[in-house]
Each structure stands twice: as structure tokens, then as C-alpha cells.
Amino acid sequence: MEIISSSPEMTREIGRAIGDLLISGDIICLYGDLGSGKTCLAQGMIKGLGVMEEKYLRSPSFTLINQYKGRMAVCHIDLYRIDNPEEIEDIGIEEHLYGDEVVIIEWAEKLKGSLPEGKIDIHIFFIDMYTRKLIISCPDSRVKKFSRLRVGELIP
């Protein structure tokens, strides 16, 4: 599925709509260049998961793992500052990947082959200064649910 976002606000709103669809145990892997909108999308998803706005992430790259409580437990992992696989093992990501919380991972490519099957991948690509293309890949069992995302209905 492809979605075009024309602003950071729309990217957050797309994230909120995605967050509304997430269920316990979902793992969302975000991929994209620096500044592509991964954090905006994650902020929206966290809001869509019912976390109060004053509680959710502002500058996630300074903290590798943040946990929140919304309509279910949410774990946001930002691997931007991770340089080698040993560091990933040291921070205990494995314990989050197989639990009941929703896990949102920025820079998920740094985990390489250690991600479970059934994850939701979202690749974000620059089109121009404000416009982004999001490509969402999810397990076949979730395609019908995610096909409900209608960008035109997200922002008036």
C-alpha cells in the first residue's frame, strides 16, 4: 500500500490512523533517510494508541527505548545512535520483540535478520521538501484491516 503525505502534520495524522489499527504484539519497523518523517509517523502512531500527548516522544534519538501506556503498552525504539550489533544486544531489545506491547522501531534496518515474522514495515521516501511517499507492507492477515486507511479522509 502506498500513501502520499504532503506535510509533517499529515504524516502524524497518517500515523494516528495507523495507531488506531494496531493490536497488542504488533511490531512496526520504520525505514527512511534522516529527516524523512519517521519520528512524525511514530508520534502519530503513539497518539493513535491512546497515549496522552504530553506523555509521548519529543526527541527520541536521545533515548533508545521509551515505554508508554495508552489503550495498550507501547514501546518506541530509536536505533539512530546504534553503530554495531553488540550494542543492540546490550540494550535488551529482544525482550520487547516477543511480548504483548506494540513496538515501534525507527532505523529498523539496524536489526537486520533479528526481527520476527509478521512485522509491519513502513518505508518513507522523500519526494520533495514536504512530500513523502510511505509504502506499508504487512502480513496477509492484516491487509484487509490496513486497506481501511484512506488518506483523503485523514485531513480535511
Structure notes:
- By secondary structure, the chain is of the alpha/beta class.
- The chain has a single domain, classed as Rossmann fold (3-Layer(aba) Sandwich).
- Helix 1 crosses helix 2.
- A hairpin with a 3-residue loop joins strand 3 and strand 4.
- It has a seven-stranded mixed sheet.
- 33% of the residues are buried.
- It is globular and about 40 Å long.
Low-pLDDT stretches are none
In the CATH scheme, the class would be Alpha Beta
Strand order of the largest sheet: 1-7-6-2-5-4-3
The topology string of helices and strands comes to EHEHEEHHEEEHH
Number of helices: 6
Structural class: alpha/beta
Question: Which oligomerization state do the chains in this entry correspond to?
Answer: single chain
Short structural description:
With 156 residues, this protein is of the alpha/beta class. The chain has helices at 8-21, 38-48, 85-90, 94-97, 140-146, 151-154, and strands at 2-5, 27-32, 65-69, 73-78, 102-106, 120-126, 132-137. It has a single domain, classed as Rossmann fold (3-Layer(aba) Sandwich).
What are the key terms here?
156 residues; seven-stranded mixed β-sheet; 6 helices; 7 strands
SSE topology sketch:
Layout: E1 2-5, H1 8-21, E2 27-32, H2 38-48, E3 65-69, E4 73-78, H3 85-90, H4 94-97, E5 102-106, E6 120-126, E7 132-137, H5 140-146, H6 151-154
